[in-house]
């Protein structure tokens, strides 16, 4: 939560902290008042005023503002003591929090430096913080805000301020699961004893025993480069034994997917996940130009038009500003989404040219056939839908919150495959960070599940110009 685990031992001796919440924290996580364990939470009257200003409308922010108001109403309605004593959160939070909630009940005289306008909501919240620090010198009064400028302002006034950490999946995105593991040169010396091997559907499987097997995750890729390189995927992992399977080599033209071959090992791993019918959920992370959309579409078209595994491809992407109305422009939902779907058109152009033998007429017919099987949907109309037997692609998934991600993935009905693509270094949504993005959230939560796979694509394959630009600019 907000405290390092080591501090738990001192919690009994130290006075509990007093966290002053900024409005954006409440709107980002409507249950944030329950996330501070034994510490107390203080809500300035200005925070409630700002909540009131944001509650109208159908946007995600307005929905969260209404949810916060309902949560606060539930807490206040349970109140027994005088409100100045604070409201016990134990019962309302069902044991999550043991502190108290304080609401500002008196007018606080502004004691801010002369240069700061007192009418501004942020500055009034800072004035409350100064007042609390003077009133309770024995306790730490800490501002919690998602607004970086607000935190800087607080620190310049000598006040304590911090970000809201509870929504973060990872503190450091470098620790995010990459989907693969490099094996050391002594791997076979330790794990080859008593090894079994057999053939199944043209693949070779090995059953290994050894110390590393306990650390393997299902559908994790194993790499060992050298004179006899190994590229394999973990199929089962239990205790000290594991089953691994060799991969289909999509770098070879005989295993091409819709005319596309993998140009590096990570693309080969991605195609193995995308073409595997047992894997229902695939996440592909990577910088611009690593081939995420192209590989996903190629695998989708092969499985829709050739193998007939899925009935159609549904593609959606986050239109920034996220989830807002796509406007009163003339045209259908698909035509309104058109401007956001340039990436789809660019990739279809590449896929359409992959058949060398087809002439212009053949290509035009193929293009019409492909476009007929790809539906473009807006995120706004996803709630309540169920997709049966579809290949669902969620592009630019790094701009989704964990809650929006849940809404989308739970649309999947029987025999549907969901593929999430994104680059967590390119987040356009306010208050979302690399650590709290819905994409990082699902990568972390789905790792090790038998029907999900993930790979982080490393190398750009666009052109020497794009690669050099990514490196030097």
What would your notes on this structure say?
It is a single chain. By secondary structure, the chain is α/β, with parallel strands linked by helices. It folds into 3 domains: 5-162, 5'-nuclease (Rossmann fold), CATH 3.40.50; 173-246, no CATH class; 265-472, Rossmann fold, CATH 3.40.50.300. Helix content is 30%, strand content 19%. The protein contains 14 helices and 18 strands. It has helices at residues 23-28, 45-54, 60-77, 121-135, 148-156, 187-191, 265-274, 292-306, 333-337, 342-352, 360-373, 402-409, 438-446, 464-472; strands at residues 18-21, 40-43, 87-88, 100-103, 141-144, 160-162, 180-182, 196-200, 203-209, 221-224, 230-238, 241-246, 281-286, 312-317, 374-377, 390-395, 417-422, 452-457. The strands form 3 sheets. It has a 6-stranded mixed β-sheet with strand order 3-4-2-1-5-6. Strand 1, helix 1 (23-28) and strand 2 (40-43) form a beta-alpha-beta unit. Helix 2 runs antiparallel to helix 4, helix 8 (292-306) packs across helix 10 and helix 12 (402-409) crosses helix 13 (438-446). The chain is globular, with a radius of gyration of 27 Å.
